[in-house]
Design goal:
By secondary structure, the protein is α/β, with parallel strands linked by helices. The protein is 33% helix and 16% strand. It has helices spanning 14-17, 30-37, 47-51, 58-66, 70-78, 84-90, 97-100, 103-106, 112-125, 148-159, 176-179, 188-200, 217-223, 252-260, 286-296, 317-325, 426-429, 434-452, and strands spanning 140-144, 163-167, 204-206, 226-229, 235-236, 249-251, 278-282, 301-306, 329-332, 334-341, 347-357, 368-370, 376-379, 382-385, 389-390, 421-423. It binds flavin-adenine dinucleotide.
Length: 454
């Protein structure tokens, strides 16, 4: 129907952007936002709200955009979400709120994420004040880790008058938002701004403090009325193949940390990525896409190698599309068997085998198997393993906290087996999403308030 088409967000030109780290998506302007907001049907029972893990009152904030009352829209979002500029950019909306949008049945869903981002960006630009904090109540809470779960828990408690201190092992706060997700998807100024608003609420952020080594969890729990552990799942997995210890093999987390946090792409960087001509990133998820797209921006010939086919790629469709537009070479249905090295243990290539999908099993899933005799070699000097991550429990060292069979922190609600110690986010669920980590942080804040009182 005329005038009812979805407003697509403008993006940087693919050739240009594959050479810089500036944000790929450029956001809505006022006219575009109001036009997109006008497509909302304002359903009586809004399914989009059910699809949002933190139940943002979506039709209400969209109405406020239509009225061009952005301060109102911002405060509606803030009632349930504390990091809208981040979620508007990185949430998998196509599987959440937008997947439930009634408009999506016959056409395109409302671009809810883009509208959330618009409101949050305007709030930053115009310095809108966030919700008022209450008077300090004298209760002290320690937060381990400054990722989305820790930041959200800290924000919710500080607003209610709790004295909150975040302990972060790295030199910068933000967790994966800072060291993992690249600048071209999530500008670091946005993350810094969200951390700064927490500081304005009175939250103290202590960086370079490895809990478990500098201070034990036990000591923290004695010193504070409650502790929240949001230490994430940053421990990389490897394939266990020959040559994986060679110079030139990285985990995705290391490559992204070097680029995002240590500025490896800048001249005279202290932790440069070794001069590379060709790099292979192994994996097919969002982390693999972030790694391969980051390496492309360093001027390296970049390949993504995935053992299944295009349809099975677990990454978001937008990320796959953006990667292709930027010139990433997709080597699908291939798997490395061995990393090849020279006499100095530097990577020179990989021995690779072709794979094929099997017929679907009873569960409808197709697995993959090697094609006999298809072994071949590829040349490269960097290999990045993006195969998923597990929890790194350094923070729990010497504590008796209970873990699950999968090695994750065991919780009841958000309560751990240690008195007044709560946990949430990737350390509890395994690698998941920003919004789920935020939801856990919110629940923990509520449980802490119920447990230690005001
Ligand atoms: C490259 C990458 C891209 C991603 N892209 C997306 C995306 O687009 N959308 C999305 O929804 N999700 C994405 N995710 C997943 C998402 O970022 C995570 O699910 C989310 O950040 C988890 O939040 P968290 O607070 O549990 O932990 P984290 O964000 O991992 O934060 C944990 C923090 O704890 C700190 N810490 C750990 N141990 C200690 C210690 N002993 N003492 C003190 N501090 C400690 C860590 O340094 C870290 O800062 C991505 C993940 C990665 C790795």
């Amino acid at each position: 129907m005329e005038g009812m088409e979805k407003v697509e967000m403008r993006v940087q030109n693919p050739i240009e952007r594959s050479k810089n780290f500036n944000e790929v998506e450029l956001g809505f302007n006022k006219e575009e936002a109001i036009k997109e907001a006008s497509r909302c049907l304002h359903c009586k029972i809004p399914k989009c709200v059910e699809g949002c893990p933190v139940n943002i009152m979506i039709p209400e904030f969209i109405s406020a955009i239509k009225e061009d009352d952005l301060e109102k829209a911002y405060n509606i979002i803030l009632e349930t979400s504390s990091l809208p500029a981040i979620c508007g950019r990185v949430c998998p909306q196509e599987k959440q709120c937008e997947a439930k949008c009634i408009r999506g049945i016959k056409g395109d869903s409302i671009a809810i994420g883009s509208l959330e981002r618009y409101v949050a960006d305007e709030a930053i630009k115009n310095n809108f004040k966030s919700l008022v904090k209450k008077k300090k109540n004298g209760k002290r809470v320690a937060i381990v880790g400054s990722g989305p779960s820790g930041l959200t828990c800290a924000g919710d408690l500080a607003k209610e008058g709790y004295d909150v201190t975040i302990f972060e092992v790295l030199h910068k706060a933000g967790g994966v938002l800072t060291y993992g997700i690249p600048e071209f998807r999530l500008p670091k100024s946005i993350v810094d701004n969200q951390v700064e608003s927490l500081k304005q609420l009175g939250v103290r952020v202590k960086t370079n403090v490895p809990i478990g080594n500098a201070i034990s969890l036990e000591e923290l729990s004695k010193e504070y009325d409650a502790v929240f552990v949001g230490s994430g799942a940053g421990l990389p997995k490897f394939m266990g193949i020959e040559g994986e210890d060679a110079d030139g093999v990285f985990s995705a987390n290391e490559i992204l940390t070097r680029i995002n946090l240590m500025g490896a792409f800048k001249e005279k960087a202290k932790t440069p990525i070794k001069e590379a001509k060709a790099a292979y990133v192994i994996g097919g998820g969002n982390v693999a896409m972030d790694s391969v797209r980051s390496l492309k921006r360093l001027g390296v010939e970049t390949h993504l190698m995935y053992r299944r086919g295009e349809e099975e790629l677990p990454a978001r469709l937008t990320e796959v599309r953006h990667a292709k537009e930027e010139g990433i070479i997709f080597d699908l249905l291939q798997n490395p068997l061995k990393i090849l090295v020279d006499e100095n243990n530097n990577v020179t290539g990989m021995e690779v085998v072709n794979m094929e999908l099997t017929e679907p099993g009873e569960d409808g899933r197709r697995s993959v198997k090697e094609i006999e005799g298809s072994n071949h070699e590829v040349k490269c000097d960097v290999v990045v393993m993006a195969l998923g991550t597990g929890p790194n429990h350094e923070a729990l060292k010497d504590s008796n906290i209970k873990l699950t069979d999968r090695g994750l922190i065991e919780v009841e609600g958000t309560k751990t087996s240690m008195k007044n110690v709560f946990a949430g986010g990737d350390a509890v669920t395994g690698a998941a999403t920003v919004i789920l980590a935020m939801e856990a942080g919110k629940k923990a804040a509520k449980d802490i308030m119920d447990s230690i009182g005001v």
